[in-house]
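Ticket #4471: structure export looks truncated?
Reporter: QA, pipeline team
Priority: medium

Steps to reproduce: submit the single chain below to the structure queue and open the exported record.
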Amino acid sequence: MALDTAPRTAGTKFLQVAGEIDSLTGGDLEAEIYQELEDQPLRLIVDLSLAGFLGSTGLAILCRAKDVCVRQGTELAFVGAGRTDIVRQLQIVGLERLFIRNSYLEP
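Actual output as written to the record:
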């Protein structure tokens, strides 16, 4: 799994995830998400368009990230051009409503 971060606009952080998100790589993703949330941005956008696999560990990490974002007032959003498989997986844990289909948010 590869992670890349970049500020999008003032108050918005962007995290691009590439590769497998499973029990072996999930710790790296979770650490990066929490690092991005340390300064309490207004919004965190997680790009899942290059994620090869989103396992139960990855889904659990995204759920915990949502909980942290809610507590600190950060809006969490997911993007992923054309990834209906990712949307279906997010539906399993009730996160599909955070999936944004607007291409202006994607790199």
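Status: closed, not a bug. The export was complete when the record was re-opened. Leaving a note from the reviewer for reference: The first strand starts at residue 2 and ends at 9.
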